[in-house]
Amino acid sequence: MAQLAVLEYPDPRLRTRAARVTVFGAPLDALIEDMLQTMYASKAIGLAATQVDVHQQIIVIDTSGNASDPHVFINPSIIARSGLGMVEEGCLSVPGVYDSVRRALRVTVRAVDRAGAEYERDLEGVLAVCLQHEMDHLDGKLFVDHLSWLRRLRARRVLARARREHAPSRVGTAAHP
Ligand code: K1U
Ligand code: ZN
């Protein structure tokens, strides 16, 4: 298993629309294991393949808090939704930015599992919200795209400040003092 690098906003690869998975088997299983490891190591509750620069419709989610309930959604589509609420979200690809997005609180998803078998599942609460967030990634969309321009501006400032604070300090050389 390997921990994968996560793309960060404004990387244009995050805007790629993912293709449907058509080939199942060992390479897909290995990618899913790597995505789960990456999600757990990052203390996240979800991860879309887009975020690790793989542009196929694959999502992993585990909202248990103790890595005990992994869900895998391949080629997902939402076939029913109900209830609306404002829910605070974060994103590994937009580190340090948290804001509220209006989402359906209950959804029914149709997807296929690692073996290629189709299933339907009713989801609610944080699981439903996380699935919508991750499906946006597969469409090349980020949660900040749902915000007003003022809140997006604030998010960009938070990101810029975080990058300045985490940037390695420059050490001068004789040629470039
Ligand atoms: O980047 C991602 O897609 C993962 C993201 C998923 C997500 C979090 C909150 C609401 C919707 C979708 C994260 O897990 S970011 C990590 C984080 O900030 C968080 C972790 C647990 C609960 C809430 C937020
Ligand atoms: Zn995200």
Beginning-to-end CA distance, first to last residue? 43 Å
Helix content: 25-40%
Count the E strands.
5
Mean pLDDT: 94
CATH fold name, please?
A: Peptide Deformylase
CATH superfamily: Peptide deformylase
What is the percentage of strand-forming residues? Answer: 25-35%
Query: Can you name the CATH architecture?
Result: Alpha-Beta Complex
Widest sheet: strand order? 1-2-3-4-5
The parts where pLDDT drops under 50 for at least 5 residues are 172-177
Class by SSE composition: alpha+beta
The CATH class: Alpha Beta
Instruction: Give a short account of the largest sheet.
Output: 5 strands, antiparallel
Tell me the Rg in angstroms: 18 Å
Q: Describe the global form.
A: globular
Bound molecules: ligand K1U, zinc ion
By DSSP (H or I, 4+ residues per run), the number of helices equals 3
How many domain modules?
Answer: 1
Give helix and strand order, one letter per element, not per position: HEEEEEHH
Summarize the entry for a quick read.
The chain is of the alpha+beta class and 177 residues long.
Structure commentary:
- With 177 residues, this protein is α+β, with helices and mostly antiparallel strands.
- It has a single domain (12-166), classed as Peptide deformylase (Peptide Deformylase, Alpha-Beta Complex), CATH 3.90.45.
- The protein contains three helices and five strands, in the order αβββββαα.
- It has a five-stranded antiparallel beta sheet.
- The chain is globular.
- The model is unreliable at 172-177 (pLDDT under 50).
- The protein binds ligand K1U and zinc ion.
- The site of zinc ion (ZN) has 5 residues, from α2.
